[in-house]
Write a structure and sequence with these properties.
Elements (H helix, E strand, L loop, with lengths): L2 E7 L3 H12 L4 E5 L6 H6 L1 H19 L14 H25 L2 E5 L1 E4 L4 E5 L5 E11 L3 E3 L12 E2 L1 H4 L8 E5 L3 H13 L2 E5 L11 H13 L3 E3 L2 E8 L4 E7 L6 E5 L1 E4 L3 E3 L31 E3 L10 H15 L13 E3 L4 E6 L2 H7 L3 E7 L4 H5 L6 E7 L5 E8 L2 H13 L4 H5 L10 H10 L7
Parallel strand pairs: 1-2, 1-6, 2-3, 6-17, 8-15, 9-10, 9-15, 10-11
Antiparallel strand pairs: 4-5, 5-6, 7-16, 12-13, 13-14, 18-19, 19-22, 20-21, 21-22
The chain binds flavin-adenine dinucleotide and 1,4-dihydronicotinamide adenine dinucleotide.
Amino acid sequence: MAQYDVIIIGGGPGGYNAAIRAGQLGMKVALVEGRATLGGTCLNVGCIPSKALLHASELYEMSLKDFAGMGIEVSPKLNLERMMANKAESVTGLTKGVEFLMKKNKVEWLKGWGRIDGVGKVAVRAADGTEAVHEAKNIVIATGSEPSGLAGVTVDNVRIVDSTGALSIPEVPKSMIVIGAGVIGLELGSVWRRLGAKVTVVEYLDRITPGMDTETATAFQKALAKQGVEFKLGAKVTGAKATKTGVALTFEPVAGGEAQTLSADYVLLAIGRRPYTQGLGLESVGIVPDKRGVIANDHFKTGAPGVWVIGDVTSGPMLAHKAEDEAVACIELIAGKAGHVNYDVIPSVIYTYPEVATVGKTEEELKVAGTAYKVGKFPFLANSRAKVNHETEGFVKVLADAKTDRILGVHMIGPCVSEMIAEYAVAMEFAAASEDVARTCHPHPTRSEALRQAAMGVEGWTMQA
Ligand code: FAD
Ligand code: NAI
């Protein structure tokens, strides 16, 4: 029986980063993964393939609508097969990269599905059905999440697809209904709208992207509606029937009223994700997940001796970079170091056009907490680089403590904000005041000047608007 310092179950961003850090710290480490490739949801069917399609479809739409105005005359023609192949190449390149990193850091990949078999033991069942038991001083659960289901809507990944199916639809749908106005629905809905589908989003709540700063979410909805996305808010889906050629979806107003039917070529179900712990043997160490399936943790420790948990399967936002930060902190704690994650500074991005990027508290959260705050806001319409590039939609909003000026939250919608949010994340990690950003020289002409101008706005001395 092999003995390890740590066995990590699950090879996603949580698991593979934990494995790398353990290898770097000289631990004898094994990573258990049942998929044929490493990288988890993120690399195989999540962040990476969705961003490949978002990038390609954005360029396609730009070439159709924006190039001519800048003096570039082209006649773009969609080659969906090639776009999908490009996506697959991105995935393969990166999953192979993770495999290389495992070898480089002396991590043993135990191929198969892992099951905790009592304290300090992990049984791994290989694809051929054989099972081997391994011993470890520490076990890290990093088994991730899976799409949530909805009664009356059976995902067949032919006509009714989840996020994985939506990444591989073999034709451009004429029409698509998206259930759920969250991150997946709006990102993948955007991909298919850009390629030619009429997209209708059906959302249970009376707003999109719940949890997002409301002013930002409202601007986001307006921007998507202008692009042709139709929203049916406050709508309760009661069922979906698939035929060979399409889907009929029924819903009724949450507030009460008449049921309606909508038909489309495809339906994408994207109403959230739930932790994945199937067949994990949690009962063998007395771990009981909560009603939502979440395994609780205290600084990544579960209630069972030597069993730790990180990533989507535990509490907090289901984001790859959050899983990655927890991975490093968890392994450092196992090694007796001071691992730590600052949950107040975890940025979050929606990779649509315009992009949305946020970090820290929303205005609504500050109001509930009774925190006095000041707002600085700057529109991209007044940013020279955004104007030159014809990308003037959106704004940057900075929320700072009214007494101390410490930055509490930043919400941006606009061009390239996915890259720019990190500036504010660093500032917040250093407990910066908005004045620190306001007095930092930013290059001209760049979109990043909007970050500075918004910070200047907190004390009312914005100069370019
Ligand atoms: P996962 O990545 O889910 O990895 C868990 C792994 O564990 C899986 O490979 C699974 O096969 C394996 N596993 C499970 N049980 C066992 C077992 N018993 N034995 C062996 N192996 C097991 N996040 C972002 O931050 N940015 C994005 O742009 C983004 N885009 C996304 C787009 C889509 C369409 C989706 C679905 C998700 C996206 N996410 C994004 C979320 C991101 O993918 C997750 O937050 C992230 O993958 C979580 O990492 P993890 O390591 O906790 O779990
Ligand atoms: P989500 O939580 O972002 O959004 C789900 C939406 O569905 C919400 O608006 C919710 O109100 C709605 N909803 C719930 N039940 C419903 C019902 N019965 N009928 C209609 N609407 C309903 O979940 P989503 O989009 O599935 O994404 C899951 C997670 O994956 C995200 O929370 C995020 O953590 C991660 N992700 C992150 C990405 C990124 O960082 N860019 C991209 C994609 C996913």
